[in-house]
Amino acid sequence: MVEPARANGATLPVAGGEITTEWFVGPIEAATQDVNACGEETGAEPPPPRRSEELPPLFRLIPYLRKQLTLDRFATAALACLSIATLLAIWYFGTKYRFEFYIRFKNVPTPVEVLEQASQVGLSQKYLINVAISLRRILMGFFIALFIAIPLGLMVGRYRLARDLSMPVVEIMRPIPAIAWVPMSIMLWPNNEAAIVFITFIGAFFPILLNTIHGVRSLDDVLLRAGRCLGASEAQLFWNVILPGSSPHIFTGLSVGMGVAWVSLIAAEMISGQFGVGYFTWEAYSLVNYPAIMFGMITIGALGLICSGVIRLIGAQAMPWLAYSHGSKK
Prior knowledge:
Blueprint: E1 11-14, E2 17-20, H1 22-42, H2 57-68, H3 71-96, E3 100-101, E4 103-104, H4 111-121, H5 125-158, H6 160-173, H7 182-188, H8 192-217, H9 221-229, H10 234-272, H11 277-286, H12 290-318
Antiparallel strand pairs: 1-2, 3-4
Helix pairs in contact: 4-12, 5-6, 5-8, 5-10, 5-11, 7-8, 8-10, 10-11, 10-12, 11-12
């Protein structure tokens, strides 16, 4: 028989006898008392874990940087630096030793001379005004081309009637280089500023239009039939199927169009402009200032690189699914 609870603890029957609960309750109570005493000594409970929002801004950037600075990105940056360093090395040694073998480096300024020119002109008011005016012209012409070419390309790629009406005119005007439009644009528009923006628009318009048409035409018909089976209207098909499906081609056209727009803008500024990076470069040529010519060329390349990089960045944010598509990573 098991006796009722004793003063010091209850007893439990076990094989071969009985055991009191003090055998395992006692150490647990002692440990609990030690924990309580520790809390009384410190005077407060242990602090809760710190949330990321309460961390300083610099520490909150660490997880983001760990995610972004992957081995592939580091290798890409290293290869880009290597290619630029190779180009600079060819320029440096070619101008240092005055290399002449069909290609002549005799009159080409050295990197040191161009750097000195940049330190003298780079922060001057005249140079900054020229850069600002070129940026204003390129953005105006490019965005006008964007807002016209993308809707038109979607319509032409989607509907046969629009394609039959517009493609003959497009194919006739597309081979005409933007520089050939300079005399006609001067006669068409009331001032040189509008003429230069129009030439920039011409340079960006056709690459954006043709890539948009190609994106719509290459869209899988299964996606369109699936949308119709789910009850999507024509407007919903455009917004949810056609536009996302053709977005990679559209952003390719935007990137190519930005490059062609810069080429067209610089040519127009050299011929009929009074301000801008192209005019700055042509003026340096007229004054036989070779370091300024090279500095103007570097400025054009840097501005084009920044504009194309912004387009690629926007495209990556607008199309996150491409990071997981087949062929996006090699």
